[in-house]
Write a structure and sequence with these properties.
The chain is an alpha+beta fold. It is 55% helix and 8% strand. The chain has a domain of 114 residues. Helix 7 crosses helix 11. InterPro entries: HATPase_C_sf, HATPase_dom, TCS_sensor_his_kinase.
Length: 573
């Protein structure tokens, strides 16, 4: 970069010396004045006038000479000061030029050399030198400071890049941990895998803190899953005992209904119905805990019996009206699940509708399967409640912590629907309330070798007065029909049709054998009292739904003839 030349100091011009000329003019003038004063003085005063004039002239001469000398000295001092000032100005200009060179050339050059990797000495040597007593030291100090600053900046940039790489790696590991590792760990732990095996299988983060957090999460979740599984197993085991007791109570009540007279039959029927509701509650809790239902069927169950068994398990069974137009049967392995699912939906519809309104159940057989529609006349569900119900019956909400209070029925419906592939959906009801459409897939239907007469448009319910058709085929072992707890009933309970071939009731060693769906008390009674031939069996052993309703109507007529008010027929028909 070009450097401006220092300005040339101005030349001092010597002023002409006027002091001697002035002195020469002043002395003659004063001498002439003194002579004139002497001449003008009187004759007698000329002596002292001449003395005075001479003295005055001498004083003036001394003063003029002294003033001339002082003025000369002052002029010489001023000239010296002017010369010194010029020298200072020249020096200042030179230093200014050095500073300009330092700022514009030397320091930028040194900085560039240091940035390029040169050392302080190399940078100073490669830069144009500066003039001045202290500027080279300034350049050297600047080069050292610049080299130190460049080194610190390089270290900071290296640390920044390393931090950026570590941050990106940690972000990638965190994303992999949250999106892949932890969901896989949760899935494996819920499958029953131990924490050590899961930790060995997973790709954990390399960082010590994220790795420790992931290991702690896996171990705590494994501990929580073990506690949850143990609690569910204990609850399921306890509920299985309650279920067994409920089934035993039902069996004893039915045996007592067959053995006792009409004076206690109403009380027994009420106990029977209450026990059926208790069985529904225990089955509900057992299914939520991962257990199974208290009943199992090894034969297909006709759809009519499925509906009746479902209605008999709810409290408001008298308000349910069933319209069945199919004689299809559900396979035995799925019969109890479908029955429980329908019971929960019917109970929900009855509970959330006015107590004076009826709940209608329609059954149709389609190509896609059996379509069951349950409609109530209550208030229409809000959109949020509809979405919650749809999510509950979809089977996706399997976490028990998401269940609200005691409203567990829809969660059980969701689990059963997911288990058996049953479709459940909600829609507005034509009766003003809410409708539930249940689609039973064809794979759950049993093939009927000898189907009975078609059930076309028949209506069953608590207020029905028409009797049911004849007994179902022997292969279809229907579940227990619901009973109405009346104080003074006349009709007896419809007995379950016996299968054509009974399994052995005892082992070769004499121990009773319990067939699926029966209690040990029944097996013990079968072992003690072997079944009679068809011609020798008592009438109560071969009763079916039709004969029971015939007995009911005969008892009603006899009761009316005797002056007693006949009771209402049972909800199961």
């Amino acid at each position: 970069m070009p450097v401006s030349a220092p300005p040339t100091p101005p030349r001092t011009q010597k002023a002409p010396r006027r002091t001697p000329a002035v002195a020469l003019l002043v002395l003659p003038a004063t001498a002439a004045g003194a002579a004139a004063a002497w001449a003008a003085a009187p004759e007698d005063a000329r002596g002292w006038t001449a003395t005075l004039a001479l003295s005055s002239w001498l004083c003036v001469a001394v003063a003029v000479v002294l003033c001339s000398h002082l003025v000369g000295r002052a002029r010489r001092a001023a000239a010296d000061r002017r010369a010194e000032t010029g020298a200072l100005k020249a020096r200042l200009a030179q230093e200014n030029a050095g500073l300009v060179h330092l700022v514009n050339v030397a320091l930028p050059g040194v900085a560039q050399q240091v940035r390029d990797g040169a050392g302080p000495e190399e940078a100073v040597a490669a830069t144009a030198p500066v003039s001045g007593p202290h500027l080279p030291q300034v350049v050297q100090s600047f080069a050292s400071l610049m080299a130190d600053a460049v080194q610190r900046a390089a270290d900071a940039e290296h640390r920044h890049q390393q931090a950026v790489r570590e941050t990106r790696r940690a972000a990638g590991e965190l994303e992999h941990l949250t999106s892949d590792t932890l969901p896989a760990a949760v899935r494996r732990l819920r499958e029953g895998t131990s924490a050590e095996v899961v930790l060995a299988e997973l790709e954990l983060p390399r960082g010590p803190q994220p790795r420790a957090c992931a290991e702690l999460f896996v171990r705590e979740l494994a501990h929580s899953e073990r506690r949850t599984a143990a609690a569910e197993a204990a609850a399921a085991k306890s509920l299985s005992r309650v279920q067994a007791k409920a089934v035993r109570m039902l069996a004893d009540l039915r045996d007592m209904q067959d053995r006792h007279g009409e004076d206690v039959l109403g009380d027994l029927l009420r106990l029977d119905h209450s026990t059926s509701q208790l069985g529904l509650i225990t089955d509900r809790l057992a299914l939520l805990m991962g257990g199974r239902s208290s009943r199992a069927w090894n034969k297909p169950i006709v759809m009519e019996s499925i509906l009746r068994g479902a209605v008999g398990r709810i409290a408001a069974y008298q308000r349910v009206r069933m319209h069945c137009s199919t004689n299809a049967a559900i396979s035995g392995y799925a019969a109890e699940g479908v029955m429980h699912l329908l019971a929960e939906l019917m109970d929900n519809a009855a509970n959330f509708s006015p107590p004076i309104d009826e709940v209608h159940v329609y059954v149709e057989e389609r190509t896609a399967g059996i379509v069951i529609t349950i409609e109530d006349s209550g208030l229409k569900m809000a959109d949020a409640a509809m979405r919650h119900a749809e999510q509950a019956v979809s089977g996706r909400a399997t976490d028990l912590a998401t269940l609200q209070g005691t409203r567990l029925g829809l969660a059980v419906v969701g689990r059963l629907a997911a288990k058996y592939g049953v479709g459940v959906s909600y829609r507005p009801s034509s009766r003003g309330g809410t409708g539930v459409v249940v689609l039973v897939p064809p794979q759950l239907l049993a093939q009927q070798r000898d189907p009975g007469p078609a059930l076309t448009g028949r209506t069953f319910g608590g207020a029905a007065r028409v009797p049911v058709p004849g007994p179902a085929p022997a292969a279809e072992a229907p579940p227990s029909a619901p009973r109405v707890p009346h104080t003074r009933p006349v009709a007896t309970r419809p007995a379950e049709p016996a299968p054509p071939v009974r399994p052995p009731s005892a082992t070769p060693g004499g121990l009773p054998v319990r067939s699926p769906g029966r209690t040990m008390a029944e097996a013990e009674r079968e072992r003690r009292d072997p079944p009679l031939p068809p011609a020798d069996r008592p009438a109560t052993a071969s009763r079916d739904a039709g004969s029971s309703f015939g007995a009911f109507h005969r008892g009603r007529r006899s009761g009316a003839a005797g002056g007693a008010r006949p009771p209402e027929p049972p909800a199961s028909g």
